[in-house]
Amino acid sequence: MTQVLHIVGGGMAGSEAAWQAAEMGVDVVLHEMRPKVETFAHQTGDLGEMVCSNSFRSDDDEQNAVGLLHWEMRAANGLIMTTADTHRLPAGGALAVDREPFAETVTARLKAHPRVTVSYEEVTALPEDGNWIFATGPLTSPDLGQAIQAETGAEALAFFDAIAPIIYAESIDMSKAWMQSRYDKGETEEERTAYLNCPMDKDQYEAFIDALLAADKTEFHEGETAGYFDGCLPIEVMAERGRETLRHGPMKPVGLTNPHQPDVKAHAVVQLRRDNALGTLFNIVGFQTKMKYGAQTQVLRMIPGLENASFARLGGIHRNTFLNSPTLLDDQMRLKSRPNVRFAGQITGVEGYVESAAMGLLAGRMAAAEILGINLPQVPQDSAMGALIHHITGGAEAKTFQPMNVNFGLFRPVDGLKGGRRGRKDRYKAYTDRAKSAWSDWLEHSALDAA
């Protein structure tokens, strides 16, 4: 076997795809344009750099679809999940990581793999031949984006992804804030105190909303539209949808007791999550924003406990492009008009670090199998991986296709189980049990086919 697999983009999807293909015995060239060609959001040239949150979200593999996806990726020897576990930070029931050593480890492991070569050059066209995976994510370079649009004959869809601010821990007033995970969730004291909470009374909340609505915002360029992904809305957009929206979203006060005033129920609570292993940085949970920098510092310092906040990084906003995958890709993630090219990750219309890495995992295995002449079994639709790839390659309505996180709404129903909220716990457990069995069988049969 002399064919080489070329992978463009060294983010979550590209890194995972390269690892999976190399582990199957295929030589891989991973093309990453950074640091020669920089982006607005990236700070380094490391592979697997996390540019937004440092959280992989829930790690509950029995009651949460993204936790189930974690489980499936671990079972498949996933590089991203293995590295995340190595650099895990306390975050209640979530999986949060120390982002800098995480990316450094991903980079080191790929560079040390005997079948992986990393090339730091920009790829600006879709090749006519060879085996390729494009995993260029939300910040696909303009030249490559134009090449993709020219090939597909359709405008790539776009929305704006916003980044939450990061604050130095030493600048937070702990006489007003306190450490507690909502409902004291977590198995250890460290997990149960993983979040930093800043309470607001009604007057403070109303003043905050007024300032948020009045703040200067980033303007859009001509021809751009603000089609936000609902799972990552800027806080000011949420506030525009109703003054109470934030109280029922990232600022909900439930499950928390203020030890400074245990008899006073907060009207709203802003939560921050540790952003590094040293505990010197905290990001504001759910506070993606497109406010201009000056306005951000003024508005965010209205939050009790953050009056003297010092910012390691202010929030920002960037364009995110993705394909209309149900129309353009086949069930092997190949571009229908050019089958030597696959796409993976966020550009396919999945949303989130975990989902992007998962689609990279599948694309890497599918491309390697094709090169090796292996007939992989179809990814089982009852697994989290299968539910997600089925959605983006045909299960979604093409006319209304939007970026999607993994969720149990993508899963086929389990016969005989009650619907509604009361039956949800049993239903979710049935989904995850069925998925684990289906995914384990798929991995076993894939290994037999490879052998």
Describe the structure.
This protein has 451 residues and is an alpha+beta fold. Helix 1 (12-23) runs parallel beside helix 11 (353-372) and helix 2 (65-75) runs parallel beside helix 11. It folds into 2 domains: 4-156 and 323-440, FAD/NAD(P)-binding domain (3-Layer(bba) Sandwich); 162-319, Elongation Factor Tu (Ef-tu), domain 3, CATH 2.40.30.260. A 6-stranded mixed β-sheet has the order 6-2-1-7-17-16. A 6-stranded antiparallel β-sheet has the order 10-11-12-13-9-14. It contains 13 helices and 17 strands. Helix content is 33%, strand content 17%. It starts with a strand and ends with a helix.
What attributes does this structure have?
single chain; 13 helices; Elongation Factor Tu (Ef-tu), domain 3; FAD/NAD(P)-binding domain; 451 residues; 2 domains; globular; six-stranded antiparallel sheet; six-stranded mixed sheet
SSE layout and pairings?
Layout: E1 4-8, H1 12-23, E2 27-31, E3 55-58, H2 65-75, H3 79-86, E4 88-89, E5 94-97, H4 99-112, E6 116-119, E7 131-134, H5 142-152, E8 157-163, E9 166-168, E10 178-179, H6 189-192, E11 195-200, H7 202-214, H8 235-240, E12 268-274, E13 281-284, H9 293-300, E14 311-313, E15 316-322, H10 325-328, E16 334-335, E17 338-343, H11 353-372, H12 384-395, H13 424-450
Parallel strand pairs: 1-2, 1-7, 2-6, 7-17
Antiparallel strand pairs: 3-5, 4-5, 8-15, 9-13, 9-14, 10-11, 11-12, 12-13, 16-17
Helix pairs in contact: 1-11, 2-11, 2-13
